[in-house]
Amino acid sequence: MRGIAGNFLDGLKKQAAKLPVGEGMEVIQSFEPIPLYEIMEMLGYEHYTEKTAEHEYHAYFYRTEEKGNVEDAPERPAVITNYPMIDEKLGELAVEFWDMTWKSEKRYLDYNIRLLLSLANAVGAGRMRQAMRELLKAYANGLDSRALDDVFEQLAWNMGIGFFSSEIAPSPLFHAYKLIKQMEKQGKERNEINQMLREKLSDKKGGCK
After folding, report:
1. Assessment of whether the complete model's pTM goes beyond 0.90
2. pLDDT tens, residue by residue, 18-58
């Protein structure tokens, strides 16, 4: 697969989940496909990557065991594949910056805490869809919904009741929060809730990306 643009990660996850043990795939990109590594490992793949030219990476994935579930695979930023269209070096820098920010072992704060910080920053910048994505990732990663109670209370306190009522309450971010709380009260399991969130707030529904 060469030069895939758009949300190539979603398509690759689905294709990778269908391949039998003993088969594999080659991904050719103008940047190292770092966001793929964890996903493919979770699905039972080993990988080897080589840089063959200044802006050309060949990543080879070989399935050694059948495990994992594509629905449980972590979300990765689809927008990264847009940067090489502007400038190939920018694409490489974007992936490296993402890897340093979210995957580096040097990070001290817990992953979910960093997601909540990103959520709050996105709300402050008016990017409610990004904020919603961070909420979904944190909840899928095991965050207790009581932490979300605290987050929204802080948003109301810091941004004001008027802003909360007119901008946050009608947003996809708060809609996701309400779905979580309602389904938990109904006694639904977390896996079922995450599945419902994916169905209701997916890209095709105008929600997540």
Report:
1. no
2. 899 999 999 888 888 888 888 888 889 999 999 898 888 89
Distance of CA 82 to the CA centre of its chain: 16
Residue 115, classed as helix, strand or coil, is helix
Contacts of 70 (CB under 8 A, 6+ apart): 13, 14, 16, 17, 43
Nearest 5 degrees, angle CA 137-CA 142-CA 143? 80
Burial of 109 (0-12, 13-18, 19+ CB in 10 A): exposed
Q: Which residue pairs, CB below 8 angstroms and at least 24 apart, start in 192-196?
A: 193/139, 194/71, 194/139, 194/140, 195/71
Tally: H helices and E strands in the chain:
10, 3
The answer to whether the beta carbons of residues 139 and 179 sit under 8 Å apart is no
Contacts of 66 (CB under 8 A, 6+ apart): 20, 21, 44
- Burial degree of 167 (CB within 10 A; 0-12, 13-18, 19+): middle
